[in-house]
Specification:
The complex is a heterodimer of chains A (about 350) and B (about 110). Chain A is of the alpha+beta class. The two termini of chain A are about 40 Å apart. Chain A has a six-stranded mixed barrel with strand order 3-4-9-6-8-7. In chain B, strand 4 and strand 5 form a beta hairpin. With about 110 residues, chain B is an alpha+beta fold. Chain B contains four helices and five strands, in the order E-H-E-H-E-H-E-E-H. In chain B, the strands form two sheets. Chain B has a three-stranded antiparallel sheet. In chain B, strands 1-3 form a two-stranded parallel ribbon. The longest helix of chain B is centred in the last third of the chain and has 26 residues. Classes of the chains: A alpha+beta (about 350), B alpha+beta (about 110). Chains A and B meet through helix 1, helix 2 and helix 4 of A and helix 2, helix 3 and strand 5 of B.
């Protein structure tokens, strides 16, 4: 038998020994009893007095209880049995005080949730803020009329509306837009669908992130008649192309158009959640295709220096530092309570009570 | 050897296997007596330690057990070698003899080698 196979067999047998313990105990007791009887008979034949014969047999065995204990340790899985016993004890205790159990579970859940939330905030604000240039001043505007709440505002605009807004606005110094575009990628083995985004001129300058490989789009890439290009998101590059750098500057057929891959973005670049970015220059007068005229564009603006988002009157609710700090403090407090209450409660359990439930 | 030597684990398993090979199916008490007799009473064997060792061998599939009736008409659990146990015995006996031979040479080498 191979050693590993043998080990697996032993484990299985020891696991099996966790069941039918009374029968197994009884069987071993019977085996020991028969052992003692055989020994006693031998001793009697050798001429010992009956009481000496029995004492000698017990002495040579080394104690019945001790032997049973050693045997049990070898038979089952003492660590696992101890663990199961503890688990049963805890469940029984919790069941006895259901209210307390419910509160504990709720508090723990809240505590874990709060700790996660705090960490998310700390991570995004302090440890690794979004790597976009001047990320604190980027605004995603909604336009709403005065009778509706900001939440009901419009956030998608036609190309004409976007150009109008971009020209007329005086709160943003830079403004970009994107719209989604499903891209069928045809290759030798079949066709795949990429979640693409068309992006307006200035998009990559807006975020101020250089490409990881290759280059980002230049103004000339948006010009009419320019050679078709695209930029790939890091995640899509790793998942679809196994992080192969050699695909850079190769041509891919996307929605029937051969396009050259000019750049792969760094991991944190995820504008619009898109896998593939395609340049598009919007113009008001242009007769767009029937499908394109239905497209809605989502805007992202960069506030001019000295303009607050309140002044921007865009209806954006700003999460100001005070709210952020207050929320974080509240969550920290909740998490601390969530840890403290169960600990205090556990510390108050009388050791004798714990032992009694063993 | 003045004092009686304690039986250590791996050796005990080997002795059990060898006993079962020589005598055929046997109960725990019989195995204990046999080991004691063969060792010329030089080993002090706590009979109780035999049972965890038997259990271990059974878990490993080297031996199997069955209830039977002894010569003097008593119920007893009989152990016997399996084929895997026979192979294990051969292998371990060979290893043991090898180790012993090496150690014997080692201990008898009095001349410093150049």
């Amino acid at each position: 038998m191979k050693p590993m196979w043998k080990k697996a067999c032993v484990w299985l047998r020891r696991l099996g020994a966790l069941f039918h313990k009374p029968q197994r105990d009884a069987e071993f007791a019977a085996e020991l009893e028969s052992h003692l009887q055989l020994h006693i008979e031998d001793n009697l034949r050798a001429g010992m007095r009956p009481e000496d014969a029995r004492r000698d047999a017990l002495l040579k065995l080394g104690g019945i209880e001790q032997t049973k204990e050693n045997y049990r340790d070898r038979r089952g899985w003492p660590t696992l049995e101890g663990l199961l016993r503890d688990l049963r004890f805890s469940l029984r205790t919790l069941w006895r005080s259901k209210g307390f159990a419910a509160v504990s579970i709720a508090t723990l859940g809240l505590g874990i949730g709060a700790a996660t939330a705090i960490f998310s905030v700390v991570d995004n604000v302090l440890l690794s803020p979004f790597p976009y240039q001047d990320a604190g001043r980027l605004v995603f505007p909604r336009i709403h009329n005065t009778e509706k709440s900001p939440g009901e505002g419009v956030q998608g605009y036609t190309a004409a509306e976007f150009l109008e807004f971009a020209e007329a606005n005086h709160v943003f110094d830079r403004i970009i837009a994107a719209t989604e575009d499903g891209l069928l990628y045809k290759h030798g083995e079949g066709t795949e669908l990429f979640y693409g985004a068309r992006v307006t001129p200035g998009t990559f300058e807006f975020f101020g992130m250089p490409a990881l490989y290759g280059r980002v789009m230049q103004p000339s890439d948006y010009a009419p008649g320019a050679p078709p290009v695209f930029v790939l998101r890091y995640k899509a590059w790793v998942e679809q192309f196994n992080g192969d750098v050699s695909i850079l500057n190769k041509t891919f057929v996307l929605n029937g158009t051969p396009r050259t891959l000019i750049g792969i973005m760094p991991p944190r670049f995820a504008w619009y959640g898109a896998d593939v970015f395609i340049p598009e220059k919007l113009s008001r007068g242009e007769k767009a295709g029937a499908a394109d005229s239905q497209k809605y564009w989502f805007m992202l603006g960069h506030l001019k220096p000295g303009v607050s988002s309140q002044q921007a009157e865009s209806g954006v609710t700003e999460y100001d530092p005070l709210t952020l700090a207050a929320t974080t403090l509240l969550l920290t407090f909740t998490a601390a309570i969530a840890c403290w209450i169960p600990a205090r409660r556990a510390a108050r359990v009388d050791p004798m009570v714990a032992l009694r439930y063993e | 050897m003045g004092d009686k030597t304690d039986v250590w684990q791996g050796t005990l398993a080997l002795m059990i296997l060898k006993t079962l090979e020589t005598l055929g199916p046997l109960h725990g008490y019989g195995i204990a007596r046999r080991i004691e007799q063969i060792s010329g009473d030089l080993l002090s064997l706590n009979y109780g330690t035999l049972y965890p060792a038997l259990l271990k061998l059974e878990q490993e599939g080297s031996i199997e057990s069955e209830w039977g009736v002894s010569d003097n008409n008593r119920k007893a659990k009989y152990y016997k070698l399996t084929r895997a146990g026979r192979r294990q015995l051969e292998r371990e006996a060979r290893d043991w003899q090898q180790a012993q031979a090496i150690l014997a040479k080692f201990l008898s080498a009095t001349e410093p080698s150049t």
